[in-house]
Design a protein that fits this description.
The chain is α+β, with helices and mostly antiparallel strands and 184 residues long. It has six helices and seven strands, in the order E-H-E-H-E-E-E-H-E-E-H-H-H. Strand 5, helix 3 and strand 6 form a beta-alpha-beta unit. The longest helix has 12 residues.
Length: 184
């Protein structure tokens, strides 16, 4: 049941049947359709899509497994300069399909459990979960490409940039005094 590489991946499938048939699905998921993920990133282009490859199979112990690869182009906020930065998120994962917590506890360590109904798995939700897991906690531009590079170098010992200079008679709290004078 392979899909054309640019076709939209179905939202829901029977993962157990796909595993028994040793199937691979390839397609895309529009990033605009992933609500939780959309809120976690700065943005993405209007037609941006996550490229997805999912392989369903049964392992040597007859466990149903899905292995996948995801690739999604997004904009994240650099935590150094607070500017936008283009990033391609990549994820490779292997999930053991389970229907109960008991089955999940029996999985080997190399498989993460993925709880499903008996005959249905939400592929978009699966992809969204994996994308959220690969988001960097503190996205940063490469140091040499970051617009805040000069400011950083100014505060490093032996830095080549000149630190900001304040006039000797200038009171750093002078702005606050001006605020008290204004009437609201």
């Amino acid at each position: 049941m392979p899909k054309a590489p640019n076709a939209e991946l179905p939202k829901s499938v029977d993962p157990y049947r796909l595993a028994e048939q040793n199937s691979t699905l390839e397609g895309t998921i529009p990033l605009s359709g992933l609500g939780r993920f959309r809120e976690a990133v700065l943005g993405f282009s209007e037609n941006a899509a996550c490229r997805v490859t999912l392989s369903f199979y049964m392992d040597s112990e007859r466990r149903r497994v899905v292995s996948g690869e995801l690739e999604a182009p997004v904009e994240l906020e650099c935590q150094r300069c607070m500017g936008s930065m283009a990033v391609t998120l990549l994820s490779r994962f292997s999930l053991g399909l389970v229907t109960s917590d008991e089955q999940a506890r029996q999985l080997p360590n190399e498989l993460e459990p993925y709880l499903t109904d008996d005959f249905s798995a939400d592929l978009w939700s699966m992809a969204e979960d994996e994308l959220l897991l690969v988001l960097p906690p503190f996205p940063l531009h490469d140091r040499n490409e970051c617009p805040a590079r000069e400011d950083l170098e100014a505060y490093e010992p032996g830095g080549s940039a000149v630190p900001p200079v304040r006039k000797s008679g200038e009171n750093p709290f002078g702005v606050l005094a001006d605020l008290r004078k204004t009437k609201h």
